[in-house]
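[Primary structure, fold]
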Amino acid sequence: EFRRVLFRSGYTPNQLSAGMYHVVSSMNAVLPPTQRVSGELKVMRDAAELARVGNSSLEDTTYALASAMNALHAPISDTTKITGELNSIVGSGDMTMTDLVDSLKSGILPAAHVAGISLQSLGAAMATMGDEGTRGAMAGTRLRMAIALLSSPSEASAKVLDTLGMSSKEATSRSAAMAKARSEEHTSELQ
């Protein structure tokens, strides 16, 4: 199977093994033993396609996809869906796949997931930031910090939320409810 991935992807064995290292290292503990090899190869195949389409480093793209799968606690069956969402994020804003990969390295996905922010909503924010000239690691770091501040607000941010008539818990709850509604709407559109 690895040879088939190698042949179809157009990447060298060294490039594929560097990418596969991230998949195996990060996903081996979360995959059931019966799914490890086939699941890891699926992630690798999708990452190779995403890197090829996005003209980005295979190793970095594989790292980003495997990290996204882990942060979102996504099953292997969602690999293609998450790959498509990452590609869609790049396509909807002024950013490259490398910009997206750099932003994901900031730890934005776990922070967003804990705060109840969907990948689509996070992508929309990153696309908007890209359109405004803030990309890559800077965009990821700024969004992660904004999420952290809104999740556990300081006195100053609590006052701002209070003037808007809501608490940080309510803002997070509303954001999660909107993300869930968008996700359900998107799912119904696909059916």
